[in-house]
Specification:
The chain is an all-alpha fold and 299 residues long. The chain contains 13 helices and no strands.
Length: 299
């Protein structure tokens, strides 16, 4: 029974990608909430170090079997682990130290567009008219929601250092997603185990620099809970789910589903922060769902 449920879940790309978006929405909330006493590189390094330790007991048998392929394909694994695990998350956490939540969420719709651009640039992928329409509609929905249905809010949005970090992170995620098609044919535990370790390793020198510069990790119950969350849900589970989603439906269609991240972020804010839903929330959510549905179609 459990095996059948797992197989059904692991074969449903859109359920996997929806859960991925939910976990990553929580990642933004947690990272922003603890940014004053958890430095960005320390949070990223702790996230991937703990995630690596948690997954290694399950991955070791597969790593041993896949080691010849891993060694032969190490350049692409190093690229994916550096770009999509280490650098992406460190830049995101750094950006959340400087930019507002509104600006960070408003920039998220550029993610799917950057994935499509990377896929088209490096692999000459074609975007169908229906998929293009879905991308546009979903982006309009996200922007409508974060702008509270009022275009005048645009006058308050200005790019700052944090925004540039977020945009850079999204560009790297576009590269990671596009190049996932180049991943070697190894077990998924071997893949995530290897890339998680690489992500932690490439952040180590930056962790030392951050500590020497005077930014120290203040370890308390809140910090422990935040690290535990980011190490399990947006790391192990979300990366497994997202990689599987890309494998099932391709990078372009999977990337569009990431527009659900700000949608779930709004819901989390309503539930956990006590914010009250407004009419523009419902309009934005309806547009996002419609756009994701169209963009997920094959033609």
């Amino acid at each position: 029974m459990i095996t059948r449920l797992f197989n059904a879940l692991y074969s449903n790309a859109y359920l996997l990608l929806a859960l991925t978006s939910l976990f990553w929405a929580g990642n933004f909330v947690v990272a922003r909430g603890v940014h004053e006493h958890v430095p960005p590189v320390a949070l990223s390094w702790a996230r991937w170090s703990i995630a690596s330790l948690l997954i290694l007991p399950f991955a070791i048998p597969h790593l041993r079997r896949d080691w010849p392929v891993i060694r032969q394909s190490f350049p692409i694994l190093l690229f994916l682990g550096t770009v999509g695990v280490g650098a992406f998350n460190t830049l995101t956490y750094t950006g959340l130290n400087y930019t507002t939540a509104l600006n960070a969420v408003a920039l998220q719709p550029s993610g799917p567009v950057l994935i499509v651009l990377a896929s088209a640039l490096f692999f000459r992928d074609r975007v169908t008219p229906v998929q293009g329409l879905g991308i546009v509609i979903s982006m309009i929905g996200v922007l409508y929601m974060v702008l509270r249905g009022n275009l005048a809010v645009l006058t308050g949005l200005s790019l700052n250092l944090g925004d540039l970090f977020i945009i850079s992170a999204l560009a790297l995620w576009g590269l990671y997603t596009a190049f996932l098609r180049k991943r070697p044919d190894i077990h998924w535990l071997s893949f995530v185990g290897t890339t998680f370790i690489i992500g932690a390793a490439v952040n180590t020198p930056f962790l030392v620099w951050e500590h020497l510069s005077g930014r120290h990790l203040q370890f308390d119950a809140e910090t422990a809970a935040a690290i535990a969350y980011v190490a399990v849900f947006p790391s192990i589970l979300a990366y497994i789910f997202f990689n599987r989603g890309v494998e099932l439906i391709g990078s372009n269609r999977a990337g569009v589903c990431l527009n659900l991240v700000p949608l779930f972020g709004a819901v989390l804010a309503i539930v956990f922060l006590g914010e009250h839903p407004r009419f523009y929330h419902f309009i934005g959510i309806a547009l996002i769902i419609a756009g994701v549905t169209l963009a997920a179609r094959k033609g």
